[in-house]
Write a structure and sequence with these properties.
By secondary structure, the chain is of the alpha+beta class. The protein is built from two helices and two strands. It is globular, with a radius of gyration of 12 Å. Residues 32-53 are annotated as: Disordered.
Length: 53
Protein backbone atom coordinates (compact mmCIF):
# COMPACT_ATOMS: atom_id res chain seq x y z
CA UNK A 1 0.00 0.00 0.00
CA UNK A 2 1.18 3.50 -0.68
CA UNK A 3 0.98 6.59 1.51
CA UNK A 4 -2.08 7.83 -0.39
CA UNK A 5 -4.18 4.93 0.94
CA UNK A 6 -4.49 2.88 -2.22
CA UNK A 7 -2.86 -0.24 -3.57
CA UNK A 8 -1.15 -0.66 -6.93
CA UNK A 9 -1.15 -4.00 -8.70
CA UNK A 10 0.12 -5.11 -12.10
CA UNK A 11 -2.02 -7.73 -13.84
CA UNK A 12 -2.22 -9.40 -17.25
CA UNK A 13 -5.22 -8.82 -19.50
CA UNK A 14 -5.80 -12.57 -19.83
CA UNK A 15 -6.14 -12.85 -16.05
CA UNK A 16 -8.75 -10.10 -15.98
CA UNK A 17 -10.96 -11.35 -18.81
CA UNK A 18 -10.89 -14.91 -17.45
CA UNK A 19 -13.21 -13.82 -14.62
CA UNK A 20 -16.86 -12.85 -14.52
CA UNK A 21 -18.00 -9.40 -13.43
CA UNK A 22 -19.05 -10.83 -10.07
CA UNK A 23 -15.61 -12.42 -9.55
CA UNK A 24 -13.85 -9.17 -10.46
CA UNK A 25 -16.07 -7.18 -8.11
CA UNK A 26 -15.37 -9.64 -5.30
CA UNK A 27 -11.61 -9.44 -5.96
CA UNK A 28 -11.66 -5.64 -5.95
CA UNK A 29 -13.73 -5.55 -2.76
CA UNK A 30 -11.36 -7.96 -1.01
CA UNK A 31 -8.24 -6.01 -2.03
CA UNK A 32 -9.53 -2.49 -1.41
CA UNK A 33 -7.86 -1.14 1.74
CA UNK A 34 -10.45 0.51 4.02
CA UNK A 35 -12.63 1.53 1.08
CA UNK A 36 -9.69 3.17 -0.70
CA UNK A 37 -8.80 3.01 -4.37
CA UNK A 38 -7.11 0.24 -6.30
CA UNK A 39 -4.77 1.11 -9.15
CA UNK A 40 -4.61 -1.80 -11.58
CA UNK A 41 -1.85 -1.55 -14.16
CA UNK A 42 -2.74 -3.87 -17.06
CA UNK A 43 0.51 -5.30 -18.39
CA UNK A 44 -0.85 -5.87 -21.90
CA UNK A 45 -3.96 -3.69 -22.41
CA UNK A 46 -3.92 -4.35 -26.17
CA UNK A 47 -5.08 -7.88 -25.36
CA UNK A 48 -8.32 -6.72 -23.72
CA UNK A 49 -11.17 -7.61 -26.05
CA UNK A 50 -13.48 -4.84 -27.23
CA UNK A 51 -16.37 -6.59 -25.46
CA UNK A 52 -14.58 -6.16 -22.12
CA UNK A 53 -14.00 -2.46 -22.53
Amino acid sequence: MTDSGHTHEKVCARDIVAHSDAELNRYLDEHRPDGGAIDLDVDDPGNLPESFI
